[in-house]
Specification:
The protein contains 10 helices and 19 strands. It has helices at about 1-45, 50-60, 75-80, 140-150, 155-160, 175-180, 325, 340-345, 355-360, 415-465, and strands at about 65-75, 90-100, 105-110, 115-120, 120-125, 135-140, 170, 180, 185-190, 200-205, 220, 255-260, 265-275, 280-285, 320, 330-335, 360-365, 370-385, 400-410. The strands form 4 sheets. Strands 1, 2, 5, 12, 13, 14, 15, 16, 17, 18 and 19 form an 11-stranded antiparallel beta sheet that branches. Strands 3-4-10-11 form a 4-stranded antiparallel beta sheet, with no helix packed on it. Strand 13 and strand 14 (about 280-285) form a beta hairpin.
Length: about 475
């Protein structure tokens, strides 16, 4: 009997030790597993041939769409003859497929940085549009608005009268967006002219091979580490990435910085909330309201204010004058003057800013830093106002920042890409977590049961001895 008791006691002790070892193995695997996952993510996030990041970086996996809404003027004659406030209706979307061409001239520099060019191409997609490119829209005359802002008004008036131009004109969607021959300036004009067969860049970005925290960060653009437009060290900084991806392991307490050549400046995104995208948890980052705030509200924007007349001595919120960048008097804003000064909405009727519809956002997978969905929303505006010298503007009463078109550039990963990301990364993480939990639960259960059994056995042994 003593031998039997000894055998039971030894078995329970052995079981306790095995349970403790199995449980400890599960705990150790948490640390080791996390290290393995982190190392794998870092390896696959480097911009080098053969990595997951590189394959997604070279060419967008999902189609990038640019949707345009143009503002049609309903009362052009009333505005000219009586100085009435323009009544507008938006027409759209007119949708184009863009950025479906892989990056060009990809060149590695000692594996430390990689340079490339972004080709621009837009192909009309009638299935995603409300009409054809031949639809007519009555809009602000780009040439008239241009000479109003740039030339002496007496000279501008001579040009306008000689060409019989007016403040508004009717053009097709294709002409307004991509170009038409202007009779006054004898040149091709268009909101996005030239676009097709042009290139943005070159960009030079860090590969992350030396330091993964710098992967995709822009080292220089067009051969320069800073911008030449704003004549200020702060506003001329090129911060962050181009927005297509970010360094892995995001900290949602910190903003994400990215550079947009469309608005000639760097901006930031702030964490708003977590979302589920095709079974993948993503962090949504929003362009904060302060981005285009007046310098009186956001002093950081002071160096972006270069047009004191249009911005009323830098007190007007919601617009960015990019003339120094593009060479023409163009103002960038969010669609429908979202977050802009109320007076801008008072000078054109028909706009209805909506945070959900008109905000810019990015949905980013926090472990890899990949941008899996985004919507970049911007509005193109020009200005006109009263003038004694320009005859067609004699009845105009107010300086007006006039919306011409707003765009939504958007993309979302497809089901195939989502399944690949989940199988290559997250399914492995989940499997590892299951193994960890299983080892801890089973080891813990065996340890507890054996300890309980050992206690019972010891109590019975004492009774027998007594």
């Amino acid at each position: 009997m003593g031998c039997s008791c000894c055998s039971t006691r030894c078995g329970l002790i052995t079981g306790s030790v095995i349970g403790a070892v199995v449980c400890l193995l599960g705990v150790i695997l948490i640390s080791v597993g996390n290290t393995l996952i982190e190392d794998t993510v870092k390896k696959e996030s480097v911009l080098m041939t053969g990595t997951t990041a590189y394959e997604n970086w070279v060419s967008a996996g999902a189609p990038v769409l640019r949707q345009f809404w143009l503002f049609n003027v309903l009362n052009p004659e009333d505005v000219l003859n009586n100085g009435s406030i323009p009544r507008l209706e938006q027409r759209g979307p007119y949708t184009y497929r863009t950025r479906y061409i892989p990056k060009r001239n990809i060149t590695f520099h000692n594996n430390h940085t990689v340079s490339f060019m972004l080709p621009a191409e837009a192909t009309f997609d009638p299935s995603e549009s409300i009409g054809s490119e031949q639809d007519n829209v009555t809009s602000l005359n780009l040439a008239v608005a241009g000479v109003y802002s740039i030339l002496d008004h007496k000279i501008a008036n001579l040009l306008i009268q000689a060409s019989k131009s007016s403040l508004f004109h009717t053009k097709t969607v294709r002409e307004l967006l991509w170009g038409y021959q202007d009779q006054m300036l004898k040149s091709t004009l268009g909101v996005f002219y030239p676009y097709n067969n042009t290139f943005d860049g070159p960009y030079n970005v860090f590969t992350g091979k030396d330091d993964i925290t710098k992967v995709s960060l822009i080292d220089n653009w067009k051969g320069q580490p800073t911008l030449p437009y704003w004549k200020d060290p702060y506003c001329d900084m090129i911060n962050g990435t181009d927005g297509s991806s970010f360094p892995p392991f995001l900290d949602k307490e910190k903003p994400l910085y990215f550079f947009s050549s469309d608005i000639c400046r760097s901006v930031s995104g702030e964490f708003e909330r977590s979302l589920d995208l095709k079974g993948i948890t993503v962090y949504r980052y929003m362009l904060p309201e302060k981005t285009f705030a007046a310098p009186t509200v956001n002093p950081d924007n002071k160096c972006f204010c270069t047009n004191f007349q249009a911005t009323k001595n830098c007190t007007l919120a919601g617009v960015l004058d990019i003339k120094a960048c593009v060479g023409t008097p163009v103002f960038i804003s969010l669609p429908h003057f979202l977050h802009g000064s109320p007076e801008m909405l008072d000078l054109v009727h028909g706009l209805k800013p909506d945070t959900e519809e008109h905000s810019t956002y990015m949905d980013i997978e926090p472990t890899t830093g990949f941008t899996l969905r985004f919507a970049k929303r911007l509005q193109i505006n020009m200005m006109y106002g009263p003038s004694k010298e320009i005859k067609i503007l004699n009845q105009i009463k107010n300086n007006t920042i006039f919306p011409i078109v707003w765009l939504n550039e958007t993309a979302e990963l497809d089901d195939e890409t989502a399944d690949r990301i989940k199988s290559e990364l997250f399914d492995r993480i989940k499997m590892l977590e299951v193994v960890q939990i299983t080892l801890i639960v089973i080891g813990g259960a065996v340890l507890v049961l054996c300890l309980i059994g050992l206690c019972i056995h010891e109590c019975r042994s004492r009774k027998i001895v007594a």
